[in-house]
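Ticket #4471: structure export looks truncated?
Reporter: QA, pipeline team
Priority: medium

Steps to reproduce: submit the single chain below to the structure queue and open the exported record.
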Amino acid sequence: MSRRSAAGSARRLTAGAALDPSARGVVDYALAKRAALFDLAAGRTRRADVCDAQTYLLRAARYHGEPLDRPCPVCRHDGMTSVTYTYGDCFRADVNGRARRTVELGPLAREYAEFSVYVVEVCAECRWNHLVASYVLGTGEPARRRARS
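Actual output as written to the record:
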């Protein structure tokens, strides 16, 4: 997949949010989502097994989530949100794994060499949550090594 198509995929996956064109390593979890919903509809999976969002994820969705323009695939509620998390060696321990808005990703991608982004869709009504996509952002430049003293 070319860099251009990977960035295009990432844009579609995050509800049309404008992402840095340097997105790479895009993984789309649509097939896993489809399988989970199919198993739920077929009765092979209990609703409690797929609608199990933890309190911290629900809180992140409430305060940092961005509204999606589609209903929840389980309960059909219109309040679906997308929560974006960033992880990387470049971040301090207290901000690693932090929920961020997509507008924060561009400046971070220009500042840091490499970090991972995970996008989760969440329904606060029925607690449905699913990893939608993951990808890598950053300048791609090698991190500077600290001089030994």
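Status: closed, not a bug. The export was complete when the record was re-opened. Leaving a note from the reviewer for reference: Residues 3-137 form one domain.
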